[in-house]
Automatic annotation (TrEMBL):
<keyword id="KW-0812">Transmembrane</keyword>
<feature type="domain" description="Prepilin peptidase A24 N-terminal">
    <location>
        <begin position="9"/>
        <end position="90"/>
    </location>
</feature>
<dbReference type="Pfam" id="PF06750">
    <property type="entry name" value="A24_N_bact"/>
</dbReference>
<feature type="transmembrane region" description="Helical">
    <location>
        <begin position="166"/>
        <end position="184"/>
    </location>
</feature>
<dbReference type="Pfam" id="PF01478">
    <property type="entry name" value="Peptidase_A24"/>
</dbReference>
<feature type="transmembrane region" description="Helical">
    <location>
        <begin position="234"/>
        <end position="253"/>
    </location>
</feature>
<dbReference type="InterPro" id="IPR010627">
    <property type="entry name" value="Prepilin_pept_A24_N"/>
</dbReference>
<keyword id="KW-0472">Membrane</keyword>
<keyword id="KW-1003">Cell membrane</keyword>
<feature type="transmembrane region" description="Helical">
    <location>
        <begin position="196"/>
        <end position="222"/>
    </location>
</feature>
<dbReference type="InterPro" id="IPR000045">
    <property type="entry name" value="Prepilin_IV_endopep_pep"/>
</dbReference>
<feature type="domain" description="Prepilin type IV endopeptidase peptidase">
    <location>
        <begin position="102"/>
        <end position="224"/>
    </location>
</feature>
<feature type="transmembrane region" description="Helical">
    <location>
        <begin position="126"/>
        <end position="146"/>
    </location>
</feature>
<comment type="similarity">
    <text>Belongs to the peptidase A24 family.</text>
</comment>
<feature type="transmembrane region" description="Helical">
    <location>
        <begin position="97"/>
        <end position="119"/>
    </location>
</feature>
<feature type="transmembrane region" description="Helical">
    <location>
        <begin position="72"/>
        <end position="91"/>
    </location>
</feature>
<keyword id="KW-1133">Transmembrane helix</keyword>
Amino acid sequence: MELLFALFLGLAIGSFLNVLIVRIPKGENIAFPPSHCPKCDNALKWWHNIPLLSWIFLQGKCAYCKSPISRLYPVVELLTGLVFMTLAMKLGVGVEWFVTGLIFSLLLALSIIDFKYYAVPDSLNFTALALALLMPIFTFGGDWMTDGVKDFSLYQDALLESFKNAAIMGSSFFLLGLAVKFLIKKDALGEADIIIAATMGALLGFPLVLIAIYVSALLAIVPALFARGHMVPFVPFLALGTWIVYIFSDTFLKWWNMLYA
């Protein structure tokens, strides 16, 4: 039952992600006007917005003008549902699960926007970073909020560690970007990559974040080789590397300890 709840909640959040992906890059309000067909501009009924099912029942076409509805919509909804369900299997359903799911949902939205526009909105990027920085509070269940301010000291070390890891990774990517720019005379890492790196540091900590960077680089090698001079967005690979390492964190830590014991 928990897994089904996680899946359905993820599908609903994925539906909202589609709104963010479409509207934020265009500078549009995410709440108004209500959902409508971009072709005929007719407002959609509530049953046109049921995550995943509406696209299937409408056969991928607008209910009014029959214009094709992008397959990206159900794909985003399904991926987000699977993200929340997979995290529920790892963490159980709770505060940590929900916040972690939001972080990875934002990383998914950022990845798709980066693929489409080669640019990443700061609003979503900084939101993911803020949630990752505060993850120790959610990880411990936020008991300090109900048990009293004095108990907040129990979480200070974890919060400081989160901020430190984010600062280390963010500054490392910034310096790496400067070095690469000096060598090849053009930008290789942007501001978005730096913020994502900070999010990775806060969420994964060391040494997992180092493994995630390595995995991300491996994933990006093949597309970069076939790009033939075209720009290859790095944010999607950073997000995917983070996901892989987070889900299989125990295995990666075991390997790390075997290598550096």
